[in-house]
């Protein structure tokens, strides 16, 4: 039996708020929001890698925020990791995010804690209680991202590539169905970016979907996969083999 899609959008219209810091609601989204994307159809299966490309402001980050419920979805159909985005209550957002891993361009690490304590903080916040279980899981994800020998380093002692690997380790802690990565190589030099891309490829091979916004065409050429272009309020899938040969 084929596996269900991890992410599925059908006829989705995506809005963002015109007021900084204001969260849209079903009552006010047409009045205080702006439609960014129209009629989005997107299905992503376990283990797929999907790139999101397009100009700044074309809606890539807003779509990622919609997938992890930072931006609510009011129009169309949207399901992520088995949860319905259109009926999701505020108190259910944390449960959705425990099923996802989120990776940002700027790492967003706790600068006053070492590698292990950055990861332990997330485990405690998501309901883990047994210290032995937490330590074993921390060791597993550090092995996976190649940071096992950096356990007690502070973030400022790590290179940019190592900090992003730590951010990816954090995203993997709860065995997510999908990783959503917003420009994860944007602050990295080419060598570090290549290492991060190889890591994402390994994560996808293990069955976790990877959805990544990027401006780095070289990465797509080196690690080709499904690519969605954002343009003029819509999305379209590109034939990468035809474009790059």
How do the helices and strands line up, and which of them pair or pack?
Blueprint: E1 7-17, H1 29-32, E2 33-44, E3 49-54, H2 60-67, E4 75-80, E5 83-84, H3 93-98, E6 100-104, H4 115-125, H5 131-145, H6 160-172, E7 178-182, H7 190-205, E8 209-213, H8 217-222, E9 226-231, E10 234-238, H9 240-244
Parallel strand pairs: 3-8, 3-9, 6-7, 7-8
Antiparallel strand pairs: 1-2, 1-4, 4-5, 9-10
Work out the helix count.
Answer: 9
- At the fold tier of CATH, the topology name is Rossmann fold
Oligomer: single chain
Query: What is the strand arrangement across the widest sheet?
Result: 6-7-8-3-9-10
| Superfamily (CATH H level) name | P-loop containing nucleotide triphosphate hydrolases
Q: Number of DSSP strands?
A: 10
Described by the principal axes of the CA atoms, the overall outline is: globular
Number of discrete domains: 1
Report the CATH C-level class. Alpha Beta
Structural class: alpha/beta
Based on the structure given, which CATH architecture is correct?
Answer: 3-Layer(aba) Sandwich
Assign a percent range to the helix content: 25-40%
Which spans of ≥5 residues are poorly predicted at pLDDT below 50?
none
Average pLDDT level: 94
Radius of gyration: 18 Å
């Amino acid at each position: 039996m084929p596996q269900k899609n991890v992410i599925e959008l059908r006829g989705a219209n995506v809005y963002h708020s015109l007021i900084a810091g204001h969260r849209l609601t079903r009552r006010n989204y047409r009045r205080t929001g702006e439609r960014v994307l129209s009629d989005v159809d997107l299905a992503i299966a376990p283990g797929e890698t999907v790139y999101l490309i397009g100009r700044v402001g074309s809606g890539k980050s807003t779509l990622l925020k919609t997938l992890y419920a930072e931006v609510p979805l009011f129009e169309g159909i949207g399901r992520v990791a088995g949860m319905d985005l259109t009926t999701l209550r505020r108190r259910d957002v944390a449960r959705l995010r425990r099923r996802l891993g989120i990776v940002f361009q700027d790492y967003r690490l706790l600068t006053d804690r070492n590698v292990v304590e950055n990861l332990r903080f997330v485990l405690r916040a998501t309901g883990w209680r047994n210290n032995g279980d937490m330590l074993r899981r921390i060791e597993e994800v550090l092995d996976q991202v190649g940071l096992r020998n950096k356990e007690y380093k502070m973030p400022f002692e790590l290179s940019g590539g190592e900090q992003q690997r730590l951010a990816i380790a954090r995203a993997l802690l709860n065995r997510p169905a999908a990783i959503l990565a917003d420009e994860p190589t944007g602050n990295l030099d080419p060598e570090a970016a290549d290492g991060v891309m190889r890591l994402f490829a390994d994560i996808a091979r293990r069955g976790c979907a990877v959805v990544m916004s990027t401006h780095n065409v070289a990465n797509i050429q080196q690690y080709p996969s499904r690519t969605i272009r954002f343009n003029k309020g819509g999305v379209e899938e590109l034939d990468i083999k035809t474009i790059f040969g």
